[in-house]
Amino acid sequence: MPPKFIGGIFFTNFMDLLIFKAPILMVQASMDGILLGILFALIAYGMALQWGVMNIINIAQGELVIMGGYVAYFMYVIGIHPAFGVIVSPIIMYFVGVGLYKLVINKVVDRDLFISILATFGISILTQQLMNFIFGADVVVAQSNFGTTMLFDNSVTLPNSKIFSALVSVIVAIVLVIYMKKSKLGRAIRATAQNSRAAKILGVDTEKVYAATFGINAALCGVAGSLIAITFTLHPYVGLPYTVRSFMIVIVAGLGNLPGVAISGMGLGVFEEFADYLLGTEFRIGAVFLLLVLILVYRRFKLSRKREYLK
Amino acid sequence: MNKLIKFILTFVSAIALILTSTSISFAKVVGDKIILGAAVSLTGKYSTNGKHTQNGYNMAVERINSMGGVKVGGKTYKFDIIYYDDESNSGRAAQLAERLIKQDGVQYMLGPYSSGLTKAMAPVTEENKIPMVEANGASRSLFTKGYKYLFAVLSPANQYLEVAIDLAVEKNGGPVDIAMAFEQDAFSQDVRLGIVDAAKRTGSKIIIDDKLPKELNDMAATLAKVKATKPDVLVVSGHSKGALTAIRQISEMKVDVPMLAMTHCDASKLAKQHGKNSEYALCAAQWHKELTYSDDFFGNGIKFDKDFNALYGYAPPYQAAESAAALLVYKDAFERANSTDKEKVRDALAKTDMETFYGNVKFGDGGQNTAKPMVLFQVRCEGDTCANKLVAPTKWASHKLVHPIPSWSSR
């Protein structure tokens, strides 16, 4: 009798699955989760960066990702391999980001968080509609034809497009870290994040830094978007899940903590895959949100204990 | 000054009076025109299919008008449609239904695109006792509410993939193991109910029953389960996104199943977007041009396909065909009622029993079309070009079903 998955394996043939199928399934789930998580971590890092530097929560993050994806898709349509999107898309998206900053964000950057959320929410709706208008309402995919890597006698399959995505994400993250440490602009960004007034007094042009930060974030979204074009699907209205996911990763990891973002991205990815196996697909996203709530409650609990101790 | 204000007031109210009186005389029939009302999605996420719907309506109106129009009570009328854009938004669709009925005085409605929007409009048309012939809302719940003025020319959603299960049982020579993954929305869950019924009827077992969250674009976990359990049939339904995601990941993960049944292959341009990777996928459709139904207006499916292509520059998806059929049903009902009274038209609609190029139309008690089976096609490739080939029902099948699907290692 084949094992059943209805309602998650906890409720049915749990033993059968755990003993005979589990090792392979667990490997598959972990690998899928990690590869997925790294990609999400890239988007989340962009969000953490501008959150930390500009104190802006960008609701339009997902839309920037999808826009970046369409750049890769159009390269694919005119016959260029969509993987080159990871080079072209960030360049275009950087200027889109700087443009958005000059148009909207610079007016809300020093205001409270609520205003920036409203403003970026507006940008999100506008870009959705614009993309729908320009690119149409069809769901589209770009084919990379990268093939598949098979492990353990074909029982664990990893799409090379996902491996490629994870590799590119890691490389981009490393380049970014080095850039932030070594370059002048990187140092200026970090200084502004720590104390924008002090940075200003010491001669940092914070306006320029903000514009560059928003541009870098958009460029990161561009890279992630082109990777999503070859691993998943694109549609003008599917940006929001990417915003929510990166928001969660940042909340779990904290700001300005790249290793934290990477680990929390992968951790959430793996957790999500396991939740799918154990509880059933319909609880997959719910489980991740439950975890988020638990983490927040735990943090608060820890904080309050600290305060008591200090008293 | 006072005089001027009075003058302006009189002027404005006069205009308002003229406007209201014209909008009342605008109602249902103006001169030799029968006015139909429709809200379709011209913008927003359904805009592609909304456009197909509108093109289908327009082509049928043009064809009926140019071929003698509608003959009621010895007089010849022409069809005309008032359109509004519902922005793919169900709240807006309900508002527009009100507006069409109350302000524009429309007495006969055509449906919008999608089950969700039809569900939003149906209570309004029902309350105002306005007949609505719809062609794009297949959700079963539309037909279980006891609506008296709603008529759907298409088969309800639960019938979409039942045929596939029957086919799998027939090929397998007995009950089958079914794995299924459906998006959590009204339409896909209705398709799921159909499969559950079919499984019960044939004694088949459902071994995976995944409900995919709407925002999910990754089915890797579901497919890993499929690999581990080796079912006889994998059924997937989740609109265009679901169809494209499924094929992408099935091909990447090299998932071998004897039969893969899906919905929305047409709407997502599966064969074009995924090419050879989509080969052998079995797809449910309301209509296919190779079906041999015929009527006086469009001839048959092949002719409809040709004419539509000449007019709009692309091959008609079934959404356009069923929309065109809705107009044929209206024409037939008007002529049988021999009146433009909406109640008489409604009664005539309820007694519809006709053949169109799109299929036979006969309405059940809930308003669903009970006379037309769903068709299944299979994606087949010659070289690098892939196309949908009709494989079931066998009466019209132009190609033989390939079963089981060849394994990935041999493809």
Task: Note down, in words, how this protein is organized.
- Chain A contains 11 helices and 2 strands.
- Chain A has helices at residues 14-54, 61-77, 85-103, 113-135, 160-182, 184-194, 196-201, 206-231, 240-253, 258-279, 284-310, and strands at residues 148-151, 156-159.
- Chain A has one domain (33-256).
- The model of chain A has no long low-confidence stretch (mean pLDDT 85).
- Chain A is an all-alpha fold and 311 residues long.
- Helix content of chain A is 74%, strand content 3%.
- With 411 residues, chain B is of the alpha/beta class.
- Chain B has 2 domains: 27-155 and 291-362, Rossmann fold (3-Layer(aba) Sandwich); 159-285 and 374-410, Rossmann fold (3-Layer(aba) Sandwich).
- Helices cover 41% and strands 22% of the residues of chain B.
- In chain B, the strands form 4 sheets. In chain B, strands 1, 2, 3, 4, 5, 6 and 7 form a 7-stranded mixed β-sheet that branches. In chain B, strands 9-8-10-11-12-17-18 form a 7-stranded mixed β-sheet, sandwiched between helices. In chain B, strands 13-14 form a two-stranded antiparallel sheet.
- Chain B starts with a helix and ends in a 19-residue tail after the last strand.
- The mean pLDDT of chain B is 89.
- The interface between A and B is large, with 48 and 47 residues.
Please describe the biggest sheet of chain B, giving its number of strands, its sense, and whether it closes into a barrel. 7 strands, mixed
Interface with most residues: A-B, 48 and 47 residues
Name of the CATH homologous superfamily of the largest domain in chain B? Response regulator
**What is the subunit arrangement here?**
heterodimer
* Morphology of chain B: elongated
How many strand segments of chain B?
Answer: 18
Indicate the CATH class of the largest domain in chain B.
Alpha Beta
H/E element sequence of chain A: HHHHEEHHHHHHH
Give the count of helical stretches of chain A: 11
Overall average pLDDT of chain A: 85
User: Which percent range fits the helix content of chain A?
Assistant: over 70%
Percent of sequence in beta strands of chain B: 15-25%
Query: What is the rounded Rg of chain A?
Result: 21 Å
> N- to C-terminal separation of chain A?
62 Å
* CATH architecture descriptor text of the largest domain in chain B: 3-Layer(aba) Sandwich
- Averaging pLDDT over every residue of chain B, what do you get? 89
Query: What name does CATH use for the topology of the largest domain in chain B?
Result: Rossmann fold
Give the spatial strand order of the biggest sheet of chain A.
1-2
End-to-end gap of chain B:
87 Å
Number of separate domains of chain A: 1
Structural class of chain A: mainly alpha
